TrEMBL record:
Name of protein: Phosphatidylglycerol--prolipoprotein diacylglyceryl transferase
Family: Belongs to the Lgt family.
Entry membrane topology: Multi-pass membrane protein
Keyword terms: Cell membrane, Lipoprotein, Membrane, Transferase, Transmembrane, Transmembrane helix
Entry EC no(s): 2.5.1.145
Source organism phylogeny: Bacteria, Pseudomonadati, Pseudomonadota, Gammaproteobacteria, Salinisphaerales
InterPro entries reported for this sequence: Lgt
Cell compartment(s), UniProt: Cell membrane
List of residues binding a 1,2-diacyl-sn-glycero-3-phospho-(1'-sn-glycerol): 139
Gene Ontology terms: biological process: lipoprotein biosynthetic process
Domain of life: Bacteria
Role according to the record: Catalyzes the transfer of the diacylglyceryl group from phosphatidylglycerol to the sulfhydryl group of the N-terminal cysteine of a prolipoprotein, the first step in the formation of mature lipoproteins.
Enzyme class: transferase
Protein species of origin: Salinisphaera japonica YTM-1
GO molecular function: phosphatidylglycerol-prolipoprotein diacylglyceryl transferase activity
Length: 271
């Protein structure tokens, strides 16, 4: 059994300005993601350039931040934020929804595609292998903040969260960082390193994330404001992840069975 380190959520201060670990992790995820995206442009089957990557990153950042926050507000605690509207802007306290961020990225990708004449799946197939990097750093931020804690456990690696109580718990944030972040990154990075049918990489991302997230939900303490929403064991995270698994399977089947699945446009990558 371990005790979670007591980490100040404020990394450092510059005068009256407090820089939170939460914000630093988001910044780090965007910087690392940008570097990996530029590196991907060097692959022979990827027909993107570094200037396009920079433009795309701008749209993705907006989609992640706005979609992630609004998704949390609307999907998880609409009643609380309706009564405390100013708290919507307190992102340093945590409260970002991956599912909302994903929808935000979808919208941003559609807008970027309309401006650059790239198809939706051209864009999502390109960025999907990089998204787990943000998930990894985001879950590390959750661990630092001592939020999204796991359920009470008796496993040898269980951790006590002093701010939550004396009982040891699953370090579910680290489970999610390992699976949704590192494992999913390796799977998608290797899979997309060779030409794949259009939409296959995006489909594998949905399937992989949905599966890992649903699995981790069995070890994560349900949100206090929601609890179990059905059958005494179904959580909101499960309810939001199950459709991703179904959509991912459908997309993979469609990608590999449609007519001439490897056909690509003259200016797109083949993943």
């Amino acid at each position: 059994m371990f005790v979670r380190p007591d980490i100040d959520p404020v990394a450092f201060s510059i005068g009256p300005i407090a820089v939170h670990w939460y914000g630093l992790m988001y910044l780090l995820s965007f910087l690392v993601g940008w570097g990996l995206a530029v590196w991907r442009t060097r692959l022979p089957h990827i027909r993107w350039n570094s200037e396009e990557v920079g433009d795309l990153l701008f749209y993705v950042v907006l989609g992640v931040v706005l979609g992630g926050r609004l998704g949390y507000v609307l999907l998880y605690q609409p009643g609380f934020f309706l009564g405390h509207p100013l708290q919507i802007f307190a992102v340093w306290d945590g409260g970002m929804s991956f599912h909302g961020g994903m929808i935000g990225v979808f919208i941003a990708s559609a807008i970027f595609g309309a401006k650059t004449r790239r198809t939706f799946f051209q864009i999502t197939d390109f960025i999907a292998p990089i998204v787990p990097v943000g998930l990894f750093f985001g879950r590390i931020a959750n661990f630092i903040n001592g939020e999204l804690v796991g359920r009470v456990a008796e496993v040898p690696w269980a951790m006590v969260y002093p701010d939550v109580g004396p009982q040891p718990r699953h370090p579910s944030e680290l489970y999610e960082a390992s699976l949704e972040g590192l494992a999913l990154f390796v799977i998608l990075w290797l899979y997309s390193s060779r030409p794949r049918p259009r939409a296959a990489v995006s489909g594998l991302f949905l399937l992989g994330y949905g599966t890992f997230r649903l699995f981790c939900e069995f070890f994560r303490q349900p949100d206090a404001f929601a609890g179990f929403i059905a059958f005494g064991w179904v959580t909101l995270g499960m309810a939001y992840s199950a459709p991703m698994i179904i959509a991912g399977i459908i997309m993979l089947i469609w990608a590999y069975t449609r007519t001439d699945p490897n056909k690509t446009d003259t200016r797109q990558d083949a993943t």
